[in-house]
Every structure is written in structure tokens, then in C-alpha cells.
């Protein structure tokens, strides 16, 4: 693989691609990466390491994820790729009418109304039960220790934490939010870089999840606390909703892109948007990466794919078109013909007629994991269950309040979901896990990282460090401030409304681990836009 051994690095960075043989963990927080590596050295496998890292991330990066969020995973083990969807359903007794009766014409971002059943603990337990080597209580021990004893904040974490605190302080004034401030701003402010933060309640919740295999969270004393707090504050979430949750094993979906198979979790996740865009783009030839024509076609393809995704994607068995129809070569050709020299206004077609943490792990046995979990929009709903450290997600915000929309709010339904893990194979052999976290940037990041890798032969770190663009809406595209200005001007001349972003925060944060098929050597890259780290041995 040329991109595996490509040592050239055309973009400014503070890191080089990391190489190792025995094991590797790549994620956005050094403490979490090291915890995963420690589990590998204790005799755990890549699945154990992924769970340990994910659990630590709920503690050491609570600005992006938590116990009260959702999770998805792609697991390569024993020659097969497995998909896990642990996104939660909306409460059974919620409805569009009920939300309107509560005084809302749109689903709010905060409070109990957008809260759906958390899927994270079930994902950890299911992965551990099916593929782990070590007991869950050992795997969660590093996270428990960090929550109980505390850890010093890293710079990027501190920045996001302070931004969230200022936003919540100004806008979340109801009593239901006071426990967020007690948990995450105990001194009346956000903790600063290098300052120690801990959460005894978080530690106790993690310990209970570890000891019961997450049973206490869904059918025990933690579930009772969540349900009682929901009822006390007019929420729709009940003990029955929690008890019925189960992580689901699903068949991953893929497209073949220039001889490589790119894999995603099927809907309700938005991974199909990345696959559809790649399916459109494979009909073009790209002579060079940094050209206006390359970027133009990438942007147009992702616009068309998003138009379809946001029109057709919801829980898979409720979709009016199938994933196979959306990913067919015939439909890709139809959409490809819409791409000309000028920027277009994207509209959905008819296929039937033709704010997250991401981590990657690998071990010496050949196991590899692509794992992602999130509360959504940073800290999520702003609701923290008293005494537990559990910040509840606000995934329900993605439902539509239009009853005719395929993703319309209904009780007991999974919504269109932004978090997506990716995996790459070639000739039925694993290349490795990849992902780019960050709301609706995620499929756009997947497309850019895959093309950087496959079309342009960049190493993992170079593929992540390359300047990124992000389609926002209509013809509006944001580019990073280090994106080549002459190319931005050429794109503007093609009709794109180009905005230069001063901060890199919204352009996603990714990780990659590739395995050399002959030597077993691992090559890993981590995000230069945050405090990421690759831990390896």
C-alpha cells in the first residue's frame, strides 16, 4: 500500500505517522489512549482496549461524549467485519402532538424533550460479552480511577468546556439544569487547563455498569434514578423505555472505491451519505489533490448525497427506499450527471427509480475496532441525573416535527444519527479502522480522508492533517484558514459561497490505524486539531 509507506508529509503538523507491531490505540485524548494500551499489555484484545478507551473518554472528554450517549462500532475479528448499532429509541409516549402541547413548535436542543435512551453502556457490555477477553470490571477500571481520583484538563478540552459553560450559564436557567453545573462547574466556573476535575458519581455509575454488565443502568437502580428524575421534570423517558433497550448487531454496508471496500453502519446512521458520495466520485478521475476541479467535484457529490440522506434516512425498516437502492451504481451515475462546472443547489433524488469521540484500536492477533460514541452537541441535553455523573444526550433533536417526513418524531423510534465509524478492507482483508467525529462533518470527513488515502496515497497522519472543507447548506462551503486561498477563489468563481473559518473546531477530529498485510505492522494517525494521541507498543 503506497499510503502505508508514504513518509512524505505535505501539510504542517506536529506529528508523524506512528508505527508499531504489538498493538495501537488512537484517540483524541492521551489519557484515554494510554488506558487502552494498558489493557492490551494486560492481555486484553483490541475490543477490550476499545471499551476501556471509550469509558475513559466519558471522563476525560465529557465535552464530547458521556455515559448517557449513543455508540456504534465496526469490529474486525477472525476474518469477519461485524457492525454494532447501540443508538437508543425515543420514549414510547412521546409524539409531535405531545411536544407541541408542551409549548414547542420545534424540538428543543436542551432539557428532557430531546432525550432518547442512552446506548453507550449497552454497547460496552455487548462488545465485552461477545468478543472481549478480560472481565468488564477490569476493562473499566482505568475510567473508574480517573473519575474517582481526577485528572488534569488538557488545553483543547479546557477550551470546549469553558465555551459550553458560558453558553449554558447564559441559556440554561431552569432548575433541571442545576445538576450539570454542580457536576461540571463545581466551583462556579469551568475547570482550567491543568486543573484537576473528578466526579465521584460518575465513578460509582461506571463501577455499577462494570459489576452488572450494564444491567443496573437499564433494569436496576440507575434506571430507577433516571426514570424518576425524568418524571419529576416532565420528561417522557421511562423505566420501561430503558429496560427495552438492546444493542443490535447489524450487517455493515459498503461500496467499492477503486479496489478498496469502504464500510459503514447502515441507517439510521448517516454513513450511507459518505458511501453515496464516494460512489458518485468513483466515476471521475482525479489527477491531483489540490486542484479546484477535485474540490469542486467532492463538494458537489457530498451535497447530493446529503440531500438524499436527509430526505430518505431514518431507522432502516421505516425507510421508503433501501440502502441498496441508494448505493446502486445506476443511481450513482444518475446523480453524477448532475455535476457540472458550476455549483448547484442540491435536491434529493428518487433512488427507487434507478458534537463526538472516535477511537481506533488494533492488536497483534489481527483484531481491529472502529468505535464512536457521542452525547451530541457537546454535553448533550444539559440534563445530568443527580448523583450519577450521567449527562443525557439530546439525539431526539434530529427528529423532524413534520408528520409526513420519513424521520418524523414518533414514540419508540430511532432518529437519523450523525455518528459513524468507518472501516477499510481490500480483497476481503482488513486495512483498518478510520473515523472523523463532528456532527454533520462526519461523512464529509470520511470522504476527504478516504480520497486522501486511496486517490492521493497519503499516510494516515498526512491524510488527517490535510486542510478540510465543509459544506454547510445550499451553496455555502466553509474552508479552514490554511486551505489554499487561490483554490478558494477558484471555487468561488464556480459559484460556491466560500467562507474562511478562523477556528478549526468544526472540521472534525479523526483517527486512523492501517495494518500492513505482509508484516502486520500498524501505522496510526491522530487528529492535529485537538489533543489526540496514538499509544502503541
TrEMBL record:
GO molecular function, one term: leukotriene C4 gamma-glutamyl transferase activity
Keywords on record: Acyltransferase, Glutathione biosynthesis, Hydrolase, Transferase, Zymogen
Pathway of action: Sulfur metabolism; glutathione metabolism
Top-level taxonomic group: Bacteria
EC number of the protein: 2.3.2.2, 3.4.19.13
Pfam families named among the record's database cross-references: G_glu_transpept (PF01019)
InterPro entries referenced in this protein's UniProt entry, alphabetically: GGT-like_enzyme (IPR052896), GGT_peptidase (IPR000101), GGT_ssub_C (IPR043137), Ntn_hydrolases_N (IPR029055)
PTM annotation, UniProt: Cleaved by autocatalysis into a large and a small subunit.
Catalytic reaction list: glutathione + H2O = L-cysteinylglycine + L-glutamate; an N-terminal (5-L-glutamyl)-[peptide] + an alpha-amino acid = 5-L-glutamyl amino acid + an N-terminal L-alpha-aminoacyl-[peptide]; an S-substituted glutathione + H2O = an S-substituted L-cysteinylglycine + L-glutamate
Transmembrane segments: none
Entry similarity comment: Belongs to the gamma-glutamyltransferase family.
Subunit (UniProt): This enzyme consists of two polypeptide chains, which are synthesized in precursor form from a single polypeptide.
Protein name in the entry: Glutathione hydrolase proenzyme
Lineage of origin: Bacteria, Bacillati, Bacillota, Bacilli, Bacillales
Amino acid at each position: 500500500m503506497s499510503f502505508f509507506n508514504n513518509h512524505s508529509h505535505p501539510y504542517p503538523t506536529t506529528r508523524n505517522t506512528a508505527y508499531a507491531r504489538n498493538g495501537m490505540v488512537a484517540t483524541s485524548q492521551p489519557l484515554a489512549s494510554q488506558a487502552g494500551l494498558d489493557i492490551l499489555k494486560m492481555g486484553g484484545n483490541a475490543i477490550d482496549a476499545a471499551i476501556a478507551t471509550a469509558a475513559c473518554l466519558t471522563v476525560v472528554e465529557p465535552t464530547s461524549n458521556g455515559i448517557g450517549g449513543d455508540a456504534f462500532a465496526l469490529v474486525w475479528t477472525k476474518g469477519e467485519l461485524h457492525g454494532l448499532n447501540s443508538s437508543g429509541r425515543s420514549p414510547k409516549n412521546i409524539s409531535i402532538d405531545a411536544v407541541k402541547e408542551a409549548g414547542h413548535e420545534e424540538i428543543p436542543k436542551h432539557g428532557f424533550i430531546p432525550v432518547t435512551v442512552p446506548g453507550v453502556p449497552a454497547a460496552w457490555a455487548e462488545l465485552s460479552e461477545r468478543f472481549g477477553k478480560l472481565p468488564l470490571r477490569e476493562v473499566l477500571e482505568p475510567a473508574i480511577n480517573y473519575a474517582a481520583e481526577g485528572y488534569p484538563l488538557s488545553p483543547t478540552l479546557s477550551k470546549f468546556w469553558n465555551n459550553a459553560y458560558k453558553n449554558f450559564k447564559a441559556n440554561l436557567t431552569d432548575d433541571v439544569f442545576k445538576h450539570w453545573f454542580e457536576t461540571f462547574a463545581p466551583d462556579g466556573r469551568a475547570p482550567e487547563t491543568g486543573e484537576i476535575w473528578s466526579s465521584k458519581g460518575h465513578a460509582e455509575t461506571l463501577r455499577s455498569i462494570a459489576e452488572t454488565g450494564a444491567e443496573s443502568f437499564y433494569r436496576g437502580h440507575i434506571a430507577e434514578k433516571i426514570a424518576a428524575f425524568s418524571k419529576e421534570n416532565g420528561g417522557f423517558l421511562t423505566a420501561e423505555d430503558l429496560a427495552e433497550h438492546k444493542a443490535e448487531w447489524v450487517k455493515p454496508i459498503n461500496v467499492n472505491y477503486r479496489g478498496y471496500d469502504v464500510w459503514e453502519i447502515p441507517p439510521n446512521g448517516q454513513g450511507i451519505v459518505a458511501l453515496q458520495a464516494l460512489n458518485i466520485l468513483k466515476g471521475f478521475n482525479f489527477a491531483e489533490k489540490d486542484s479546484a476541479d477535485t474540490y469542486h467535484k467532492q463538494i458537489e457529490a457530498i451535497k447530493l448525497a446529503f440531500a438524499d440522506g436527509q430526505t430518505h434516512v431514518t431507522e432502516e425498516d421505516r425507510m421508503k427506499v433501501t440502502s441498496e437502492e441508494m448505493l446502486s451504481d445506476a443511481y450513482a451515475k444518475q446523480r453524477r450527471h448532475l455535476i457540472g462546472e458550476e455549483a448547484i443547489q442540491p435536491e434529493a433524488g428518487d433512488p427507487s427509480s434507478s458534537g463526538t469521540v472516535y477511537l481506533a484500536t488494533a492488536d497483534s492477533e489481527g483484531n481491529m475496532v472502529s468505535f464512536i460514541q457521542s452525547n451530541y452537541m457537546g454535553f448533550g441535553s444539559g440534563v445530568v441525573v443527580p448523583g450519577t455523573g450521567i449527562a443525557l444526550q439530546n439525539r431526539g433533536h434530529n427528529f423532524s416535527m413534520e408528520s409526513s417526513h420519513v424521520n418524523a418524531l414518533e414514540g419508540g423510534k430511532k432518529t437519523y444519527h450523525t455518528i459513524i465509524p468507518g472501516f477499510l478492507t481490500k480483497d476481503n482483508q482488513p486495512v483498518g479502522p478510520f473515523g472523523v467525529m463532528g456532527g454533520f462533518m462526519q461523512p464529509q470527513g470520511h470522504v476527504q480522508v478516504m480520497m486522501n488515502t486511496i486517490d492521493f496515497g497519503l499516510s494516515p497522519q498526512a491524510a488527517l492533517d490535510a486542510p478540510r472543507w465543509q459544506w454547510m447548506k445550499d451553496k455555502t462551503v466553509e474552508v479552514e484558514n490554511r486551505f489554499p486561498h487561490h483554490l478558494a477563489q477558484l471555487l468561488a468563481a464556480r459559484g460556491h459561497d466560500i467562507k474562511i473559518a478562523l477556528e478549526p473546531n468544526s472540521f472534525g477530529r479523526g483517527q486512523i490505524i492501517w495494518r500492513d498485510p505482509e508484516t502486520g505492522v500498524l501505522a496510526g494517525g491522530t487528529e492535529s486539531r485537538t489533543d489526540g494521541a496514538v499509544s502503541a507498543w
